[in-house]
Structure formats: C-alpha cells, structure tokens
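Sequence in, structure out. Go.
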Amino acid sequence: MKLTRFVLLLICISVLIVNLSAQTDKKEDDDEVIRVDTQLVDVPIAVTDKSGKPLLDLKQSNFIIYEDGKKQETTEFTATNAPFEVALLLDTSGSTRSDLTLIQRAAANFIASLRTGDKVSVISYKTERNSTQAFAMSEVLSGLTDDRDKLKTILEAVKTSNGTPYYDSLLQIAEKVFGKAAKDDFRGRRALVALTDGVDSVSAAEFDEAKEELEKVGITCYFIQVNTREFFEENLLGDCQSAIRFSVAQIRRYYRTYYPRSNVEKTFNFCGLGDFERLAMSKGLYELADKQMKELARNSGGRVFPVEDLSEARNAFKAVADEIGTKYSLGYYSSNEKRDGTYRKIKIELKGVPTGAQIRAREGYTAPTN
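Output:
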C-alpha cells in the first residue's frame, strides 16, 4: 500500500514538473514573439536653448514621447557623448566638377572634426563608359569605418561625373550603408550628410522610392545645399548643341510634377525647347530639389544648410559635425501593435528645461506590414 502511494506521488510530481516546464517554454516563446513582432522606434533629437545653443546633460526624464497623440514609454535613452554613424555623400557632378579639390578638403575637415568612435562611409559619383556611351553612376567607396587614414585615402580617390544619380545614391545609402540593423551603440545615431544641389539627372530610382527607404532606416538627414542654379542657367541658353542640356529624365520629371494632367504641348527633345521654356524648366527642377531636401530633413529631424558656393561648405560641414556631437536619441516600443503600414506621427515634449528651449526630432515613421 505504501509502495503504491509512493508511486502515485512520483507520478504527480513528474506531471507537475512537465506542466511547469511547458509553461516556461510557452512564456519564453511568447517573449520571443513579442521581441520579433514589436518594432523599436528610434528618435534622434537635438535640443537648443532660446539662443540656439545646444542643451547638454539632459536626462531621459526630460523627454516625453507621443505617437499619434498617445503617450509612449521610453525604453532606450542615449546621451550626447555616444558615437554616430555617418554616410557622407559628395556630389561631384555639374558645376562642382572643377572644384573637386575644394570638395575633398571640405570633406576631410568634416571627418577630422568628428569625434573618436564616429564612423563614416563615403559615397560619390563617377563616369563609366561602355562601347557606345558614357554614363554617371553612384558608388559606395567605403563601408562605415573609424579608420581616419583609410578615409583620407578614399577621399583622394573621389572622381567626377557627367551626370547626377542623386536618387540612386540615396537609395544606396539606405540599402547598402544602413541596410543592416544598427548595433546597440549606434541605435538612433545614424545620419546622412550630403553635399549636393539635389537636382537629379540620371537616376533609375525616383525620389519617393528613396524617401521611403530612408524613412524605414530612420536616419537623420543633413544637406549642405550648394547653389549651382546660376552656373547652370548661364550655360543653358543659346545654341542647343553647345548648351548644357536637361536629360530626358529631367524633362519628364518636370512635366510630371508641374503639368500632370495638362494638355500643354510637351517636347522631350532639348533642342525643341526655347530659352523661356528652358529657364522655366530649370526654375521648376531647382524648386523641386529644394522642396525634397527640406522634406527629408524636416521629417528626420535634420537640417538644410544653403551655401552659395563650395568655399562656404567648410563652415556648413562644421555646423553639421557640431550638431551630431550634441544629439540625443530615444527609443520606444509603440503601443500600437498593428502591422498596417500606416504613417504614425511622433511628438516630443520637454520638461524641466529652461524656458524657450527648442527641439528638433524625427516627425514620424511608417509602421511595418505583415
């Protein structure tokens, strides 16, 4: 009888252990599902006082995050002294081709002004040739590295191009430079810094495609906007054989943007355009580039620094480097767990800071889809 009771007791204990083990395994599986299905949203932030001077030494408690009006719980916080990863895009096409040395020097000074631990990738344009034609293409010259000697050598190898594959380069940055998830040290601390006029001429990609991919990776976008319009228009008029030409892609983009449903007569042959039409088209394309840059910068919490010529680029690069060195970053898991591909607005409020403090941060993101 005692033996029977003992056997029954062993069976009950075994069943209990199996059940507890199964519950533990299920809990671990559930936790794993939560980690996989919930997206950590990174939000880079710059904070300045009313005079524009960066506010340093802020804490996580100084920030409140809202998504679509709903308060979120901050789970990650990184102070200003953490390192950054930077994709440095150098547009060496158009009027900048004669100033390659100036571009290289400005870029070298920018890299030198970054902090120890900051990593840089260099992207630029070059001209390739086949048996029938020459064409411009974007090239990632290096992956992210903090090897300053290597970066110096890379800058010396930057070439010029006969076209501007600007949208293609933005797409390359999103997919190749920042295509993999950031390591913990760099979460929310990635940036694009582009020296360009933003007027694309030969890309296979379009702006909306590049914008979508940049928003997915959540990088802060800075633009040093070089004013090349005067140079371009001086060489745009007169004999069509000797003038600087619009590409067919630019002409199509102009009509698609400004006359999408119009019956206006359209010609895609540059020589068929009069001087007035050429100037109108130039104005439209430069305004479009300006709008696109501002949109990327505003949505990501970055800035546009207009410069009249490349001699001013060095100071603009310094301003970008200074801001990168004073960025905070927050992270949160959205309380909205739907994977519906909708755009969600982010708002950051400050508390416990001096009156007049200003904040610039990522304005939103697109939720993942199933």
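Check: The radius of gyration is 26 Å. The longest strand covers residues 119-129.
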